[in-house]
Fold these 2 entries.
Entry 1:
Amino acid sequence: MTRKTLLVGKTFPRIEAEAKVTGQSRYWLDLPPATNTLYVGLVTSTRPHARILGIDTAPALQHEGVEAVLTAEHISGMLGNMLCDRPILAAHTVRYVGEPVALVLARSPAAAHSAAALVQVRYDDLPVAITADESLLPDAPILHPEFSAYQGAAALGGGDLPNVAARFTMTAGDLEAGWAQADVIIEQQYHTSVRHHAALERHGASARQKADGTLILWASTAAPYALRKEISRALGIDAQRLRVTCARVGGGIGAKSRTSIEALVVAAAMAYPGYTVHLELQQSGEFTSVFVRPALSAYLKMGVTRQGEIVAMQARYAWDVGASADACLETVWSAAYAGTGPYRIPHVAIDSEAVYTNHTPAAPMRGNDMAEVHWAIEQHIDQLAAAIDMDPVAFRLHNIVKGGDRLALGQIMHVTGLDQCLQKVTAAIDWQRRPDDRPSMARGKGLALFWSPTTVAPDHSAEACARFDDDGCTIAIDNEDAGTGLHTFVAQLAATELGLPLDWVQVSPVDTAQGLQYPQRKATAEVCSVGNAVLMAVRRLKVHLVQQVAAAWNESPNHIDIIDGIVISHATERQQALDEMFRAGIATAAGPSFLRPLEARGYATPSPFFASDDPEIASILYFCAGAAAAEVEVNRTTGEVKVLQLAAAVDVGHAINPDLVLSQMKGGALQGLGAALWENLIYKDGVPINPDLYNYHVAMFTDLPAQLFAHIVEVPQEGGPYGARSLAADVPVLVAPAVANAVAQAVGLRLTRMPITAETVWRFLREN
Amino acid sequence: MKYPISFHLNGKIVSLEVSTQETLLDALRQRLGLTGAKEACNEGNCGACTVLLNSAPVYACMVLAVEVDGSAVETVEGMEGEELHPLQKALIDQHGLQCGYCSPGILLTAQALLAHNSRPNKTQIREALAGNLCRCTGYTDIIKAVQVASRARR
């Protein structure tokens, strides 16, 4: 008897799809209302930077239905994973519009809302710095004068300049020697915009302290364990006292793996035992009071020879992280690790730094923000190729990092399918055929390569628990599936290993009560770490199961296997369905033998490709790589850019579920297009002027390019489960610089500032 | 001030008393326990709360409950009969969902489209669904799902 179906490398619908399309899935806001609830009216800062002179809570307290108003007098603590630099509630200073200042607790949502408007905060305004460039000026306001006292601050290489929270550098070779070899040197500054994750489901949380003093938090989060760790530390309570549970997550895009407003409701619940404290952010709060994506100010200088060798590179990546740097540390490290782009360059000096500014704290959006870095590098590569009159494809192929090359890190590069990806995307848009201009319409094609280090935090590891009983196999892992397909991936791995039909495997909602000990938070590494932990757990489970059956059948475990849910003996050809074994016992000559429910745990501490020698700095599991190509049409009169064709290819190692991989790629491509053309959270005098889905442009159905191609390339990853590599994070990286390069080819102008809106193109065309 | 209203909800008559500020979305989700229509922006920008009002798609967060007195309202909970609706099945099979928060609204808008255009082309599908945002999928697979469902219905 041979296995009928191998469940990896095959497309299945996501395992929770039916519940989602019938409306049966329960997201946080769909949970049944609790009795005895206090609703939170959140009072937030209206100033980008100011001292708090006083808070008058009396009018709010007199409002009908109001139970209390809590301020930093009642709730204090600093949030963070590695760097505790986010106050739960602003105490003496506010650093961004939207920063929580006070909580009104009321008996109804309406009372909470109207009483919150009655809380009077008196401010003394301070000077404002809203971009990294502004914060680095000598006379810039200092956002965190007490920075050096923050927990975790000492290890991060920051503090050398007033607003720099973290700094990481990477050097190789001899930069001066490199410049001496170069025939052409190009310097350029690039800027990306502040964007918003804009998951449709807003953040929300509710918490209650029970009679025994334990606390339970229900939150719209993908990372309950990370929340437990950060909240318990910030509030100075034992982590075991706090249980964190989640429901389905209506999109995370990076913003639901970090802690923010959840700490407020836990603190309020501790002050009001027996009540459920309930906080729902409204739309503007979702844009201003939680997280945004960091913006990048990148300075690049690169030297190339006439023969097309890139010989030297100097880069300064200044990350505008808003009022808190903690969530962006891996972004800072990754930008240094991968700051050369996927190119072999002998002489390198890269400096990457987190810079505090007066806007909402930043958190990575789909990966470690490599899109920002490649926005600069890939435009620079096109300029270098043009300067020495070389074809951009040939120039890239000549310089790309290949397996076996020594990286600036000092490490020997592993094999990737980067060249195959480039080939796929250039073929998809017929790269060789020069697009035809029409009188008022200029057309151009552009491409971009990328690589992205999948990094893991120093304390990184993962754990999974697999259980088998008469309900089938249930897997517990430490991260919720916010739409990536993680749970389907996990179910496919488990079913394949255990020899079960896919629908026998379930993945339970994440709950810290499941007691996993080694939680991790990073979605980009979860394919590798969670995947390997699950593989270990189910392999152990299978051993236990086979041993029980072997004992009952009086056979050697070596002869027993499970195929499509049937336990068989290769020696005696005896067989019995596994579900029947649980129901009726293992059939033996002496009557049924009871099959005990089984449980096994698995752990994964992946061995990194590049292990950081600093225990505070992230390591690299592997590099992901890919390519994108775009054809655009630019209206010379209006400046409008229309993308006619867009192609993306990513080396995913092994596509465990090919159609779900393609679905991730297509979604990522459209987010990348949004970054290139539309998405921009705009600040005027430090105040966000478009914090809602009407004025902040998220791509709509009608924005989809006429042709969108997604291609999978598979060069198996050593150490990845079945050779798989992470992917969801990476596709948006590719698209924006490919579009920028296409626009540059179409109109002969280089737009270095993201996004490329009709207005910026129109101004550029008029001025040049 | 409370007003009594009656309306057809997924084919059955329901009666309740609503206040003048209460939206249809709040009435469905909080009073009637139907959480299929999702609350997202709550300001008429995203389409996640789309339901059908007398067969036309509306944002339930922008309709007052008193307005639906005497009308017919359909939500995602009413879509499946014995089996999944062809649109639901196609959305699953074509991978037209990821986090799933936009799916109920998209299904109802698509149902309304197919009711008056049984074989829409891609442009018609895009235009009909332009009021429904999806942050995850990139839309391509949703468009394919609507096309597959339109063929299945014939």
Entry 2:
Amino acid sequence: MKKGLFYMFHIKNLRYKDILYIDELKIEEKQVTCIIGQSGGGKTTLLKMLNHMLSPDQGEIVYKGRSLFEWNPIALRREVVMLSQQPVMFEGNIRENLNFGRILSEKEPLDDEKLKEALKFVCLQKKLEDDVEQLSGGEKQRLALARIFLMDPEVFLLDEPTSALDKGTEEKIMDAFIRDARKKEKTVIMVTHSDTIPKTYADKVITIK
Amino acid sequence: MKQEVINIEFWRLSAAYLFVLILILLVKKREIKREKLIVLSTARMTIQLVLVGYILMYIFKNPSPWIVLLVLCFMESFAVYNIFKQLHKPLSKKLKLVIVLSMVIGSLVSLLYFNLIVIHFKPWYEPQYFIPIAGMFIGNSMIGITLGMKEMIENFATQKNLIEGALMLGAKPDAATKPIVNSAFDSAILPTINNMVGMGIVFLPGMMTGQILAGTSPLVAIEYQIVILIGIAGSVGISSFLSLQFGYKTFFNDRFQFIPQNEKEK
């Protein structure tokens, strides 16, 4: 273990149905970890376990030195926020959707200035009043990313955050996102099918078979 | 102006069935193939009503708290059975328990309040009052719970992503399901509320019509009708609210993970 590094997650002997078997896995804090592997290999399942949306059948997941079962699930999910693969849109306009993550997790909503910055951050040229129903798949994905960015959690779990984006946009957004995460010393755990993201940004790459 | 109620003679009652024949002829002509259903429904309606007539006759002549309570239990059980049947889907044990308790508590609270305080009849089990009023409260609560549950269960299945998406962001289960639970409550009580709007203008409600036909002054009849309608609204509101408020919680485990009902069976 390198000096100053601390294990954010420590997984031991994890079993889940016939989807996931992990003997041991350590994920370090304040680093960018990419999870790669074939489709259907259980990558999303693993992220959902870290966010405690699913419980393992066997084995243990330790977060900050305490088993996930010792954490209050809601408090944990507010620290370890997950972005789902299918961007979730709630009824309403872009402003409401950007703030909804903070509202659901009982944080103060942000003013328009901050929300506009977040839109710029994910290269989304839209008005805050626009209805989310009008957005394309890629635009929804970026809006969902901006939403969890605004929640400012300790750990970001990202499930294929750029799957609906073209290479150029992917690069721009990931550059900005990772730079910001490193500056604020966030932990990022990301499932991706992209070839370039792990090479460019990852401190560590985990392959799930 | 009180007058004797006209008793319909037997042959005149039989003559009413002429209209059933007309209905059968009409569907036959249109080839709608509903003859069997019409015959069956008419037969069931006749037999059930004749039976109920004699049973009520007996109960009214021999008023007993035990018989009234027995009838009440029967009505509650039938209502619960009907809700389970109407929902089609496999229901978890917990959800079934929630439905039973909501049905019973919602209708009983309203029944006790309206019987003992508002209408204030004595003795409390006077079957002539107790049974029809209980029937109306329980029947309407049954419809309310069914409509609300149906909407909630369907939306939980189709909008699983939305609920999980909210949980992943750290939402509490009640916040994650709020839009769905609210719209389900809306579906449960809207028919009752809308019913009140058209009352007396679009139609005269069955109970009031019956009382007027039986010679009661329309002013007394509307008194009863107002009381009963408010009672029904209360009963539907309380039972639907309880069933949804405690029902949505059965879709989450103690780790606040969302478990769609039918996946539990696997």
